[in-house]
Amino acid sequence: MPQMDLPLEELRRYLPDREEPDDFDAFWAETLAEARTHDRPPEFHPYDACLSEVDVFDVRFPGFGGDPVAGWLLVPASATGPLPCVVGFLGYGGGRGFPYEWLTWPAAGYVHLLMDTRGQGGSLQPGATGDPYGSSGPSSPGMVTRGIQDPADYYYRRVFTDAVRAVDAARAHPSVDPARIIVSGGSQGGGIALAAAALADDVGAALVNQPSLCHYRRALHVVEGNAYREIWTYLRTHREAVEPVFRTLSYFDGVNFAARATAPALFSAGLMDDICPPSTVFAAYNHYAGEKDIRLWPYNRHEGGGYYQDLEQLRFLRSLPLTAS
């Protein structure tokens, strides 16, 4: 497959204007304030995963509207004091799966809280969290267009709120140093991580692999795959809804969250990615307000760096004051 987006020298300079509603900050402040009125503590139930070197907990914490959100918490069994914690978010369609799928971070000396994504987990790893909200309007199959004509009803309002509450939940566990929280994810998870980096309090670092949910207009003009295809299909059918849809999406655009995030961040992009085009990744990266770096994989599509990028992330975190060693 040939390179399908802008040349690299243009990507490095690519800084599009942000589409941002005037009440962006107020919208999120009110959303999170309401979520935190549901202040019951997170639950961490010991879980026998047949792992001798990692203590596993089946997690439930209150997310948007106080809805119970599932997750896994993995703690190195040898831990003697509070450790930094990587709070992880999943790609589109994935659920929390099984604990033994998520051993990299505890093997490296970090606590790992993996958040289940509400309403997903039916096409990749299995999930355990429902989404009990109906939509006030029609949607394409999948999750990305649910409630898409009203920011208050939009599906990702719930997901991004869940992500902030996942950070809150991680901080509540005695094995976690609340001052050393890292948010991490790829694709959809990368977009969620950008939102969490901007909205959660005092995040220590962000690991953002080929994020989706960024620079929507550009994405829909360049690719038609995966989640963006659902939006494209919706707009193809609801021709009158273009501007209401993009107004809603402006409250959830990773570019706007990037402009508010200040934690040190490591991004990545596959330069042949036909799911999350490189220009949308660079739009978020170039607007990112904090210290940042990016790893590029010239011949890779949406898989990006894969295990190579895992090693880059481990090295990146080791270079920061919140290192686990």
Give your account of this protein's structure:
- It is built from eleven helices and nine strands.
- Strands 1-2-3-5-4-6-7-8-9 form a nine-stranded mixed sheet, with helices on both faces.
- The relative contact order is 0.15.
- The radius of gyration is 19 Å and the shape is globular.
- β8 (265-270), α10 and β9 (292-297) form a beta-alpha-beta unit.
- The termini are far apart.
- The protein has 325 residues and is α/β, with parallel strands linked by helices.
- The chain has helices spanning 8-13, 24-35, 104-107, 155-171, 188-199, 216-222, 226-237, 242-250, 254-258, 278-287, 307-318, and strands at residues 43-47, 54-62, 68-76, 83-89, 111-115, 176-186, 205-209, 265-270, 292-297.
- It has a single domain (8-318), classed as 3-Layer(aba) Sandwich (Rossmann fold).
- The active site is at residues 187, 273, 302.
- This is Acetylxylan esterase.
- One of its GO terms (biological process) is polysaccharide metabolic process.
List keywords for this structure.
about 325 residues; alpha/beta; Rossmann fold; nine-stranded mixed beta sheet; 11 helices; 9 strands
Short description:
By secondary structure, this protein is of the alpha/beta class. It has one domain: Alpha/Beta hydrolase fold, catalytic domain (Rossmann fold). Helix content is 33%, strand content 19%.
